[in-house]
């Protein structure tokens, strides 16, 4: 808390509220007593001015284009770290010592297998089901398979559930892919890295050994690191809201996956690549820029704009460099990358995008890389979900341990009918 306060003049009197200050970032007006004092609610659809919780995990300065995990800049983590280390950092608050990292990686690796009965669950889905639809179902179903880690009042069970979720997501995601192409499910291999194991589960077949391309493995590490957490975004807030009622962690993460699926959130990577393919050539870019600016056209440049970043998304910078490197190393010449780079340049110099502070976000280039690696577009958001599971469980654990945590229960501005009497159907 600071000595500073915020005062509010209303028709029923003047009220003063304390200002809370974090370690960095804007001060926050503590309005918890507001309704009790004034009998009024605050109105903030989309929570554009509302801090819903305290958190020590991730900090974003959207104006400066800064993203810190537990204080460490995202570009340093993407360059120097690996996904297991970042997962430990987000969950436990600091970079692990070698022994801690080894133990953590060992634990995650030993939880990658899923209950054998879960495979039959997949067979109930249509082969052409969207893998995100399958993920919503199977991750929710984990609570039925791992009931021994659903007591949220037990810190040990919470930790085991967190490890299980991080470890099993790649296995479940690869199974969703294998099911869609009619190939047998593979079992994880403990000697491989988190990403190497996922690549083999996805692209390997039982008939021959799978060779992991180190460039692809490194690119996947980066993509996972860049998507690991992003403070109180829509899906993370969904996980917290679901968890605030005391729901078990598997159900909460399934809720987060459902929210992530939307094209305004995690579904944007799939939508961005589809858009780039539809544009097809550099010549057609002006047509699409004009459509994006037309108020009467619902079209938006997918992978552009962000609720928080009013500057270049720092993740998009790393993603752009990774896209160029992966395509070069794999010797792929994809016109989609040319379209993306030219579109970015045109948009960055266009008055509409400058004025509205619309920059490429993390999803603008990720699809180009994932496409080059061989993932079908429907899998893009699933990969996002694998990585974001780390952030979701870290935020969920933080919320459960927070003594100020309450069930999330917003109020409303009611604009419907006032009280009226029931009329029997024949008299209407
Ligand atoms: N293309 C064209 N115009 C845009 C775009 C875009 N991608 N994004 C925003 N605008 C315009 C809006 O039309 C609006 O204009 P107006 O003020 O004249 O009405 C203005 O910019 C502000 O847009 P809002 O929708 O009010 O901003 P908000 O913060 O609510 O939305 C969002 C952010 C959803 C990300 C939006 O920019 C968007 O739809 N982008 C495309 C989808 C996308 O890439 N999503 C991924 C986000 S990152 C992630 O989830 C990992």
Layout of secondary structure:
Elements: E1 5-10, E2 13-20, E3 28-29, H1 34-38, E4 58-61, E5 66-69, E6 72-73, H2 74-80, H3 83-92, H4 98-109, H5 118-122, H6 131-145, H7 155-181, H8 194-203, H9 214-226, H10 234-244, H11 249-260, H12 268-279, H13 285-293, H14 314-329, H15 335-348, H16 351-355, H17 363-373, H18 380-401
Helix pairs in contact: 2-9, 3-18, 6-7, 6-11, 7-8, 7-18, 8-9, 9-14, 9-17, 9-18, 10-11, 10-18, 11-18, 12-15, 12-17, 14-17
The protein binds acetyl coenzyme *A.
Please tag this protein with its features.
binds acetyl coenzyme *A, mainly alpha, 3-stranded antiparallel β-sheet, 6% strand, 428 residues, 50% helix
In brief:
The chain has 428 residues and is mainly alpha-helical.
Architecture overview:
The chain has 428 residues and is mainly alpha-helical. It has helices spanning 34-38, 74-80, 83-92, 98-109, 118-122, 131-145, 155-181, 194-203, 214-226, 234-244, 249-260, 268-279, 285-293, 314-329, 335-348, 351-355, 363-373, 380-401; strands spanning 5-10, 13-20, 28-29, 58-61, 66-69, 72-73. A 3-stranded antiparallel sheet has the order 1-2-3. Helix 7 (155-181) packs parallel to helix 8, helix 9 (214-226) packs antiparallel against helix 14 (314-329) and helix 11 packs across helix 18. The chain starts with a strand and ends in a 27-residue tail after the last helix. Acetyl coenzyme *A (ACO) is lined by residues 264-266, 268, 292, 300-307, 356, 358, 361-363. Acetyl coenzyme *A binds next to loops.
């Amino acid at each position: 808390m600071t000595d500073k306060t915020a005062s509010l003049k209303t028709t029923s009197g003047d009220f003063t509220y304390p200002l809370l200050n974090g370690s960095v970032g804007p001060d926050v007006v503590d309005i918890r007593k507001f309704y009790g004092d004034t009998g009024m609610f605050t109105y903030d659809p989309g929570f554009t001015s509302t801090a819903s919780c305290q958190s020590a995990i991730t900090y974003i300065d959207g104006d400066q284009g800064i993203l810190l995990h537990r204080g460490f800049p995202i570009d340093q983590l993407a360059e120097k770290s690996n996904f297991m280390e970042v997962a430990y950092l987000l969950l436990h608050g600091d970079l692990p010592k070698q022994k801690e990292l080894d133990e953590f990686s060992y634990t995650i690796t030993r939880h990658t297998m899923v209950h054998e009965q879960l495979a039959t669950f997949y067979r109930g889905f249509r082969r052409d089901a969207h893998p995100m639809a399958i993920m919503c179902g199977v991750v929710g179903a984990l609570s039925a398979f791992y009931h021994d880690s659903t007591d949220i009042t037990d810190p040990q069970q919470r930790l085991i559930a967190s490890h299980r979720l991080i470890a099993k997501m790649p296995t479940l995601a690869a199974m969703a892919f294998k099911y869609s192409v009619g190939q047998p499910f593979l079992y994880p291999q403990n000697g491989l890295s988190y990403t190497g194991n996922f690549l083999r589960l996805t692209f390997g077949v039982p008939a021959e050994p799978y060779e992991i391309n180190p460039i692809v493995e490194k690119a996947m590490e980066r993509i996972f690191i860049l998507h690991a957490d992003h403070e109180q975004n829509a899906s993370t807030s969904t996980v917290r809201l679901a968890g605030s009622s005391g729901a078990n962690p598997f159900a909460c993460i399934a809720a987060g996956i459902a929210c992530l699926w939307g094209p305004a959130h995690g579904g944007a990577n799939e939508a961005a690549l589809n858009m780039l393919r539809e544009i097809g050539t550099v010549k057609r870019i002006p047509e699409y820029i004009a459509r994006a600016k037309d108020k009467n056209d619902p079209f938006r440049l997918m992978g552009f704009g962000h609720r928080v970043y009013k500057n270049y998304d720092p993740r998009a910078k790393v993603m752009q460099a990774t896209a160029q490197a992966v395509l070069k190393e794999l010797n792929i010449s994809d016109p989609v990358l040319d379209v993306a780079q030219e579109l970015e340049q045109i948009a960055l110099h266009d008055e509409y995008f400058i004025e509205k502070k619309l920059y490429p976000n993390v999803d603008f280039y990720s699809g180009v890389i994932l496409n080059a690696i061989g993932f079908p577009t429907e899998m893009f958001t699933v990969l996002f979900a694998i990585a974001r599971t780390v952030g979701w469980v870290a935020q969920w654990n933080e919320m459960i341990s927070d003594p100020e945590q309450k069930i999330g229960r917003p109020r409303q501005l009611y604009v419907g009918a006032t009280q009226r009497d029931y009329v029997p159907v024949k008299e209407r």
